[in-house]
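Run log, item B.
One chain of 351 residues. Sequence copied directly from the ordering sheet:
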Amino acid sequence: MQDLKQGLATLMDKYQALLSSLNLPDKKDQLKKLEAQTLDPNLWGNPNNARDVMQKLADVSKEVEELESLGEEIAVADKIGDIDRLEKRLEKLTLASFLSGPYDSKNAIVAIHAGQGGTEAMDWTGMLYRMYLRFCEKRGWVTNTVDYNSGEEAGIKSVTFNVQGHYAYGYLKNEAGTHRLVRQSPFNADNLRQTSFALVEVLPEFEAMDLPNIQIKDEDIELQFFHSSSKGGQNVQKVSTAVRVIHKPTGIAVTAQVERFQEQNRKNAFDILRSKLWLLEQEKAKQTTKDIKGEYRPASWGTQIRSYVLHPYKMVKDLRTEVESSNPDSVLDGDLDMFIEAELKKINPTG
């Protein structure tokens, strides 16, 4: 009985600390403001903004509900087994307190690029694409593929997709970097051991109003329109629906081609360009932002973060946290929580 009382007291202390760090009263105020916005008859005059408001309302409402229900369950817990179960729930919610960066709550733009290695590397890119789609699906996040370039024989040369979900960027940002696969190649008769690489980029998704200092001027843009080469059926092949946006001052080029209508591809391309220009500004200012944990983490081929070994043994190892899994099949099916959570805890050691 004494162990139970002590365990519950410790659990309640941790819960109160979490409430303080997440500022529950502030979240309730935010919830009221979002609810008020949904009553505005002009809300759906801007469908994109309306969907954003409704998504934020659902996300904040869920977070408040989970925090309050956890407190209620701790208050009535009456056995040791309850403490273990509630501890796990508390730990999950505590991760949200680590996501306090200015852009962590935003949607994410994820791009995956095949490295050297031909078909093998493109197949690896396809495996990573599926892994992240499964991870997002398990979290209830919505994904929308923006650009998709198939490999000649198999796999994907490069793919870009949006992720809509509460703290999508905050959870995914540390996935940026080089991912390495070691396995027996299914693409040669001798089943030789092959090492392949793919690069993952993760950016926050911005609206123009989010970045008033980043101006995309018409005279700085070159637009190209062409027939889509992505998956999407015959309709996208009949007209030049695909869009390439080239930002002449920086040389940044962005392609969007999955949507059936040119205007939507154009919007998607400009959204990605805006995020890439933001990243460029981050790189320029990295000396002043280097102390902001998790804020500046550009993806480059030199930043290898994780190895996935399927032969001669089975193991996935994160090279930053040393976290390992002996079940790569599960990881490649989207079970990434242990790696993402470990990295969040590492960059928030006092969390």
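Observations after the first pass:
- Residues 232-237, 291-296 have pLDDT under 50 and may be disordered.
- The CA atoms of residues 181 and 308 lie 5 Å apart.
Flagged for discussion on Thursday.
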